[in-house]
């Protein structure tokens, strides 16, 4: 008897993406550029985070017709975003048959209290996290893959670095803790004890954790891989740069060979201007997407 | 015995862990220079298009193809099974491959398989998996799904599975591969 939608096939799908780059694309043409550059998947969304920032207003799930057109155009997996807590958007994306749903703080949250109960969907979910507490809460809700939140649409890597380091420090702390501290740690992290115990025993997360939110250059991708990211999401970075094709290829190369600096140097030559970027201190708290859905 | 694991993208660490558990030494393969002193190679699961492009980008596709042609044993899982059969990739196994043959992620599944040579069923994990729709005569079919979709096969020094033995605790396919390497 074949069984679909199991924890193993959902988490396993993310394992197969390791060492790869998942690129935000806004149309079929961009999706084809992403595939040709060596992306392991594309994220179909009408506006990349930097445009969402610029446009303001409410950001929602993309047009299903646009997502389906991209699914028809490329053979690599296609992901799409649903608003935090928006069960109907997630079910619509599942009905279309996207390969992964990103319950994403890049879109305007639909529920300021609860995330989606992701356990009984056939399609796996990826969610953002800033620390181990957020990571394990999302896993408890059924997420099969994690990514740092970073600060989307800024082209500024500092928040993604902060979030990756924080998750890793938290894991090291829990791994080194005594058994008798776990109940209290579970309370402090606001996470289920069984998930915390699992991290205590294995010293790692039970799902992969990619870097996202501010990756703008091949060197940024290599930096995140060296900090322990399993792979990279690039949002605004590629198609807001001067030469998207070259840029996309260079980021894929840097992610696959994160310590081969001569190779990354070669790939980084004459890429033209990357996206302009935003200094984080100029953003107010309510302009920070990473504060959503904790 | 040294087994190289192609480490450009995909489920590399799982294969490395399984091989080491079975007593093999492993070497991760990232550039052409890594393709020396190997007794066998594992091509892991991942995205086959990405792996092919990365192989080309570091000038590894041609040397890898040459070593396989010269008789180096290879175990390809999922994407690896695709690469071995595609004429534009490794062109080493005479089969017609259907990429993502079982459909998209929501059709990904687990199922017990009857495998030629195994006493008990093997639990296969299929993720956007391919299958071979046809193979040429000297290829031995080891397992099928729905009778006609070939999901495990052996051909000379090559072993392929459409599913992911590296995601389970069952070492039988890795053992079989190491026996093939030892008996070469």
TrEMBL record, chain A:
State its Enzyme Commission number(s): 4.3.3.6
InterPro entries reported for this sequence: Aldolase_TIM (IPR013785), PdxS/SNZ (IPR001852), PdxS/SNZ_N (IPR033755), RibuloseP-bd_barrel (IPR011060)
Cytoplasm as a keyword of this entry, yes or no, is no
Give an example GO molecular function.
lyase activity
Annotated D-ribose 5-phosphate binding sites: 24, 153, 214, 235-236
Q: Which residues form the active site?
A: 81
Q: Does the record's keyword annotation contain DNA repair?
A: no
Swiss-Prot/TrEMBL catalytic activity: aldehydo-D-ribose 5-phosphate + D-glyceraldehyde 3-phosphate + L-glutamine = pyridoxal 5'-phosphate + L-glutamate + phosphate + 3 H2O + H(+)
- Top-level taxon in the UniProt lineage: Bacteria
A Pfam entry, by short name: SOR_SNZ
- Top enzyme class, one word, equals lyase
Stored CDD domains: pdxS
The entry's keywords: Lyase, Pyridoxal phosphate, Schiff base
Query: What is its pathway?
Result: Cofactor biosynthesis; pyridoxal 5'-phosphate biosynthesis
Q: Which residues form the PdxS/SNZ N-terminal domain?
A: 7-212
Subunit composition and interactions? In the presence of PdxT, forms a dodecamer of heterodimers.
What's this protein's function?
Catalyzes the formation of pyridoxal 5'-phosphate from ribose 5-phosphate (RBP), glyceraldehyde 3-phosphate (G3P) and ammonia. The ammonia is provided by the PdxT subunit. Can also use ribulose 5-phosphate and dihydroxyacetone phosphate as substrates, resulting from enzyme-catalyzed isomerization of RBP and G3P, respectively.
Q: Which PANTHER family match?
A: PYRIDOXAL 5'-PHOSPHATE SYNTHASE SUBUNIT SNZ1-RELATED
Name of this chain's protein: Pyridoxal 5'-phosphate synthase subunit PdxS
What organism does the UniProt record list as the source? Lacticaseibacillus baoqingensis
Automatic annotation (TrEMBL), chain B:
Q: Does the keyword DNA-binding apply?
A: no
Entry annotation: catalytic residues: 78, 164, 166
The reactions it catalyses are:
aldehydo-D-ribose 5-phosphate + D-glyceraldehyde 3-phosphate + L-glutamine = pyridoxal 5'-phosphate + L-glutamate + phosphate + 3 H2O + H(+); L-glutamine + H2O = L-glutamate + NH4(+)
Q: In which pathway does it act?
A: Cofactor biosynthesis; pyridoxal 5'-phosphate biosynthesis
Gene Ontology terms, MF aspect: glutaminase activity; pyridoxal 5'-phosphate synthase (glutamine hydrolysing) activity
Supply the alphabetized keyword list: Glutamine amidotransferase, Hydrolase, Lyase, Pyridoxal phosphate
Binding of L-glutamine occurs at: 46-48, 99, 127-128
Q: Name one Pfam family in it.
A: SNO
Write the Enzyme Commission number(s) for this entry.
4.3.3.6, 3.5.1.2
User: How does this chain assemble?
Assistant: In the presence of PdxS, forms a dodecamer of heterodimers. Only shows activity in the heterodimer.
Described by its record, this protein's role is as follows: Catalyzes the hydrolysis of glutamine to glutamate and ammonia as part of the biosynthesis of pyridoxal 5'-phosphate. The resulting ammonia molecule is channeled to the active site of PdxS.
Assigned protein family: Belongs to the glutaminase PdxT/SNO family.
Q: What is this protein called?
A: Pyridoxal 5'-phosphate synthase subunit PdxT
Q: Which organism is it from?
A: Lacticaseibacillus baoqingensis
Lineage of the native species? Bacteria, Bacillati, Bacillota, Bacilli, Lactobacillales
